[in-house]
């Protein structure tokens, strides 16, 4: 029992001694760090490179750490041989890389804008005369349409626009393009004007002739008449708007009957003949008329 107590007591003293040594070592390390700085610990114990960076400098500098017991001057400073403390803080040697140069910027060649050739205005060629292609006189029927044209000289004149006009638009109406319409009988002068020059054409408008196509004699009330009788015949001319509707009557035998200009028939002698009517060169179909003798009259007995 006594032996165990002595062993425990000895072990306890050993622990106290070891704790004291550890505290001394910790104090010594703390002291060294406070002298040289935390960032230079690696360089002090092994020459480990100490990296310092800045926005402009990314180079690496090395701090040479002197061997303990062998002071090495660095930049004119010495270390204390006992405490190994520098008499002056060591000088850090920093290597600055040369500045980088950017290659010159090459601008692409510029292409000049395309040049527009100057606009040249062709010379103005004046008018020297004008004429109407249809001549100086023309005849139209009522209702006819005529397209007038004008020739401007020279043919390469700059402005060839012709202005048309009529002296009587109730007879001949003219459009801006030279289209003439005959409205009624009469005479009108059509003018073509351009650049102070004028040409005229005289247009005479006459009635349009409507040809007769048929003549019909109306049947008389009686085809048999007595000598001395008088009847009236009527004729119809077609078309109704024929230009010449004049009717000419004709008897097939003027000795039997006579026909006046208005179609009156007179029986002259006993017999049979025909009557025709003509208008516009068209003759009607004949109408047959028979003339009988008068019956003798008897006087009454006394």
Features:
alpha+beta; 302 residues; rod-shaped; five-stranded mixed beta sheet
Write the layout of secondary structure elements.
Layout: H1 2-36, H2 41-46, E1 50-51, E2 60-61, E3 129-132, E4 137-141, E5 145-147, E6 150-153, E7 163-166, E8 172-174, E9 179-182, E10 186-194, E11 197-206, E12 214-217, E13 224-226, E14 230-232, E15 235-238, E16 248-251, E17 257-259, E18 264-267, E19 271-279, E20 282-283, E21 287-292
Parallel strand pairs: 4-11, 13-21
Antiparallel strand pairs: 1-2, 3-6, 5-9, 7-10, 8-9, 10-11, 12-15, 14-18, 16-19, 17-18, 19-20, 19-21
Structural commentary:
With 302 residues, the protein is an alpha+beta fold. The protein has two helices and 21 strands. The chain has helices at residues 2-36, 41-46, and strands at residues 50-51, 60-61, 129-132, 137-141, 145-147, 150-153, 163-166, 172-174, 179-182, 186-194, 197-206, 214-217, 224-226, 230-232, 235-238, 248-251, 257-259, 264-267, 271-279, 282-283, 287-292. The strands form seven sheets. Strands 13, 16, 19, 20 and 21 form a five-stranded mixed beta sheet that branches. The chain has a four-stranded mixed beta sheet with strand order 4-11-10-7, with no helix packed on it. A hairpin with a 4-residue loop joins β17 and β18 (264-267). The longest helix is centred in the N-terminal third of the chain and has 35 residues, at 2-36. The chain is rod-shaped, with a radius of gyration of 74 Å. The chain starts with a helix and ends in a 10-residue tail after the last strand. Residues 47-76 have low confidence and may be disordered.
